[in-house]
Amino acid sequence: MRSGLVLSGGGARGIAHIGAVKALFEHGFKPDIISGTSSGAFVGAMLAHGHSPDEIIELILQTSFFPYLRFGFGASGLLQMNRIEAVLCKYIPENRFESLKTPLVVTATDVISGEEVQFRSGEIAIPVLASCCIPGVFSPIQYRGHTLVDGGVLNNLPVEPIINEADYVVGIHCNPFAIDKPLKRTTEIVYRSLILAMHGKTRERFKMCDLLIEPPELSRFSIFDFRKAGQLFDVGYRYTRDFLDKNPLKIIH
User: Fold this and answer.
1) Widest CA span of the chain, in angstroms?
2) d(CA 28, CA 31)
3) Quick one: 32 exposed, middle or buried, by C-beta within 10 A (0-12, 13-18, 19+)?
4) What's the CA gap between 58 and 162, in Å, rounded?
5) Contact at 8 Å (CB) between 6 and 35?
């Protein structure tokens, strides 16, 4: 039986994916294929390369990778994305999908054609960065004839790209639709509006997962709470560990 892992976008809240995956690994889950968008694409790439969840969170804490995503409008945003590319290539030096230990699919959005674009071959860094380009925060990235922005604009839980390649799908969604934290930044309001616009379609994708993990405590965090990386990791880990104790995985390797 082949298993798939789907990781949503969510800005800083995507760090919770790392803790959630650690708990999944401890319960014997090992994905045969990974699909991710936005911050989920970054985490997915690191996992697919072979980094453990503990290694990934340590790298984030040591290199301050995610804080690069906190600022940037127009061309300055694109400049900062180039810095992130260098960091990503440092930890995935081959920078090729074909070099990954686990197959990975990255979803981005072509803002001109209005279509989803999936990447699963060639270089990794640019598709992952394009998938993280939140509209209104970062400049679109030009790549392979596409003008790319955040994959979550059209599909924030990209189950479809792997649904026919996995018999058992675990989805992790880090964007609770109810939030407990006031929206203080214009960029937060823009992103929140995107989440609400995607609400219906994302709910439908929940039903496509054999197991869905959605830590409700993430509603207390902003998409820009990068300095709370340790807390976000812990929220993902604790919730998923307790959830799996009550809802055991039904998968046989």
Assistant:
1) 49
2) 10
3) middle
4) 29
5) yes
Could you give the 3-state DSSP secondary structure of residue 177? coil
In eight-state DSSP terms, residue 96 is B
Q: Hey, CA dihedral for 223, 236, 171, 32, is it positive or negative?
A: positive
Cβ–Cβ < 8 Å for 106, 44: yes
| CA trace torsion 243, 245, 248, 249 (10° rounding) | 70
User: Distances from the Cα of 134 to the Cαs of 74, 202, 214, 237, in angstroms?
Assistant: 12, 17, 21, 26
The pair of structure tokens assigned to 44 is 């997915």
pTM: 0.89
Beta bridge partners of 172: 7, 213
105, β-bridge pairs: 35
What does the block give as tokens for 146? 């596409």
**What tens digit of pLDDT does each residue of 124-176 get?**
999 999 998 877 777 889 999 999 998 888 999 999 999 999 999 999 999 88
pLDDT-derived band of residue 86, with 50, 70 and 90 as boundaries?
Answer: confident
Q: State how far the Cα of 28 lies from the Cα of 24, in Å rounded to an integer.
A: 7
CB 12 within 8 A of CB 222: yes
Q: What CA–CA distance (Å, rounded) separates 216 from 163? A: 25
Q: Alpha-carbon distance 71 to 28, whole Å?
A: 38
Question: What tokens were used for 145?
Answer: 């004839």
CA dist 160 to 82, 190, 208, 219, Å?
29, 26, 8, 26
Q: Which two tokens stand for residue 192?
A: 């929140």
